[in-house]
Amino acid sequence: MNYPLALYIATCFMQFIILINITLFNGQWNGITMWLCTGIFIFSTAVFVSSKSNKRRSSND
Fold this sequence. Notes:
By secondary structure, the chain is an all-alpha fold. Helices cover about 90% and strands about 0% of the residues. It has two helices and no strands. Helix 1 (about 5-25) packs antiparallel against helix 2 (about 30-60).
């Protein structure tokens, strides 16, 4: 799977979590939702930075 698609899927997953929190739980789980979205964001950022550094290493070889 290429990295832009993985990042897009992560963004869709975060939006789905927020939608479920608002529609099913009436915003009662805002803290948990925020932590889940933050965790997904940090993981996605790490994957993105890792892919950029791997591309630089492979282009320098």
